[in-house]
Every structure is written in C-alpha cells, then in structure tokens.
Design brief:
This protein is an all-beta fold. It has a single domain, classed as Jelly Rolls (Sandwich), CATH 2.60.120. It is built from no helices and 11 strands.
Length: about 120
Amino acid sequence: MQVITSNKVEKESFSIPLFTDPDVTIQRLLPESREFDVNIVNFGKGVRNKFHVHDHEQVLIVTAGKGIIATEDKEVVITPGDVVLIPANETHWHGATEDSEFSHIYLSNPASQLTQIEE
C-alpha cells in the first residue's frame, strides 16, 4: 500500500503546446502505477488547454479554484468537489476562469492517447 499526501508532491512546470499559457504545473501523484494515470494539474488565472480528445475516458476531480469544462456545444463552470466524466473521443477543453486559479486531479488510462484539435 502507498499513501500520497498531494500537497507534499512537488509541482513541476507543465508548459506544453496544449495550453494557452505556460502558467501550468503538474503534480505526479502515482508515477509508478501501471493501471492509472493520476496527476494534479494547476492552471493560472485564465489558462486553459486547447480543444483536444482522448481515446479513453477521462475523469476530472476539481480540487481548488473555479474552472470551466467545455465541449463544442456548451461550457460549464466547475468548482471544488465537482467530478467530470469525459467520454472517449469527446472534443473538449478545461481550465481556469479569468478571475481564478484552478486545479483538478485527472484520472485516465496510461495508454490513453491525446490528440490536440485546436492550434
């Protein structure tokens, strides 16, 4: 058994082309797991990822701040305690509102492939 205290896990820069701004960090919660990809992503105010899809389901668990989850058809404001299930192959983005930082845990299959739709 392994117990992880998330606020003790180091934040690493996560500045990749998927994001609209480099003000993003990641905390890798279970790097040794072969069955789950579980990390916290922390977004600066107004930062989001670009439209993308995953070929497996993805779960987001909001832990801090105020964010938005969006599909091609709608946007929903999400706050701590909200849990979002994103079906495989659904085009979406998620990130912080303009006035708040935002953090979520994401859970996915380690074999999941992400395809960025938006440039």
